[in-house]
Design brief:
Length: about 425
């Protein structure tokens, strides 16, 4: 952060205590963190870790710069900060070479924007507490560039148990069962929305299509092959998935989806206004924050029968090269990577820990089931789209979604795939 930002902190402190010639700002170790955690359990989980850090670093002033709504808006705001050469010390990213390479080469391949953390991992003994899969997920060319804090399952369907008790049905485990449940819900008087979606920003629809519907319909091997550039952009499996998405959108989704963020859709399930939503299991953190009890008020199953795959993403924190307070940022990274912090953070966030030495007794049954699935060699662990494809391709796909949904025609999505397919797998 530049001198203007640090000066602003002093001005705010001065304004807080009032004008005085004798005022001297306290000596603080200012560290800035950027995230898009602004909803429900996300805020609670982050605040818990920051409070833990302050207990051991009482002179640290943490500036938590959060971007409301997340998604593309958060990405653009962070890009502007890095472009203007006053990045936060550490900032939130997702796993994967695509996400991290975007930050590494943001200002050009010869001017890295984030710095290697291999020495930090060695110093903290983290090479033994993170699996090879997760270390690889935050590494590029043998260099570790971020500290993982959690693992989320994005092919997750959340459902309101009372609603399913009302219709006397079980949560769907296949696409065919989803339609049967949806028809039963729509036949009620008054009807209940089968699937709540908050599609403002459209990234939620991309997650639903690519990381859930495509995996369920075409299988995890095709998903990996397609987004590695080994198929054709208009492969029949992709066309069939997009057409299926339009069927779901036209008949089984809330009419105000375009006006809602993801958390509003989860709230519809909490209120019983919708039976289900498909979202990463940060949705569980939101429901927990609202006081709902897992296994009693709501449940979680792999979506559309995709139980043979675990589509995973996770949150991690790289360190900016141009950070003003590198040592303070490193201290905060140590806290995020610690066992104590992760066992504090993840039960609130709805995720499972990134470390392999977690105390699972502090996690609920849904989390333990996900932990077991992630560790099960019979379940194929596949990275989310943000880890597989460059960020500009992801943006192009998201930008094509509204036209597809408005027209009821997958042409705009297929065009975006065709225009960008040649860069996949490079």
């Amino acid at each position: 952060m530049n001198g203007v930002g640090r000066a602003l902190v002093s001005v705010l402190l001065l304004a807080t205590v009032g004008c005085s010639d004798s005022y001297e700002p306290p000596e603080t170790d200012t560290v800035e963190i950027f995230s898009w955690w602004t909803s429900g359990g996300e805020v609670q989980a982050l605040d818990a870790v920051l409070e833990l850090h302050k207990q051991t670093h009482p002179n640290t002033n943490i500036l938590n710069i959060a971007q409301e709504g997340g998604g593309q808006n958060a990405q653009e705001r962070l890009e502007q900060r890095i472009r203007d050469d006053y990045p936060p010390e550490i900032f939130q990213s997702n796993f994967g070479h695509g996400s991290l390479r975007n930050w590494l080469e943001f200002n050009g391949a010869d001017k890295p924007s984030i710095q290697p953390l291999n020495s930090l991992f060695e110093e903290q003994g983290w090479t033994a507490t993170y699996s090879d899969l997760l270390r690889d997920s935050v590494s590029i060319d043998g260099q570790i560039y971020a500290v993982p804090v959690n693992v989320h399952r994005t092919n997750s369907l959340f459902y309101n148990k009372a609603v399913f008790d009302e219709i006397g049905m079980d949560p769907p485990t296949t696409l065919e069962e989803f339609y049967a449940v949806g028809d039963a819900l729509l036949a009620l008087d008054p009807p209940i929305v089968p699937l709540a979606i908050g599609s403002e920003g459209a990234w939620t629809v991309n997650l639903l299509m690519m990381e859930n519907l495509l995996v369920a319909m075409a299988g995890p091997d095709f998903y990996m092959s397609y987004f590695s550039g080994q198929e054709t952009p208009d492969h029949p499996n992709m066309v069939a998935m997009l057409e299926e998405m339009l069927v779901i959108w036209d008949g089984y989704v809330n009419e105000d989806a375009n006006m809602l963020q993801w958390d509003a859709a989860v709230q519809m399930v909490a209120d019983g206004d919708a039976a289900m939503t498909i979202m990463g299991d940060w949705a569980k953190g939101y429901l927990l924050n609202k006081g709902l009890v897992p296994g009693e008020d709501f449940g979680q199953v792999p979506s559309f029968g995709s139980d043979g795959a675990f589509v995973f993403t996770g949150d991690c924190f790289p360190m900016a090269v141009a950070a003003e307070n590198v040592s303070g940022g490193m201290e905060l990274l140590k806290t995020f990577g610690s066992k104590e912090a992760q066992d504090l953070f993840n039960p609130l966030k709805g995720s499972i820990p990134a470390r392999i030495d977690a105390d699972l007794s502090t996690y609920d049954d849904l989390a333990r089931a996900n932990y077991d699935a992630f560790s099960d060699p019979a379940v194929m662990r596949i990275p989310s789209l943000s880890a597989l494809i460059p960020s500009e391709v992801g943006s192009a796909l998201v930008n094509a979604i509204p036209a597809m949904l408005d027209s009821g025609d997958p042409a705009s999505m297929l065009e975006a795939l065709a225009e960008n397919y040649d860069v996949l797998g490079q």
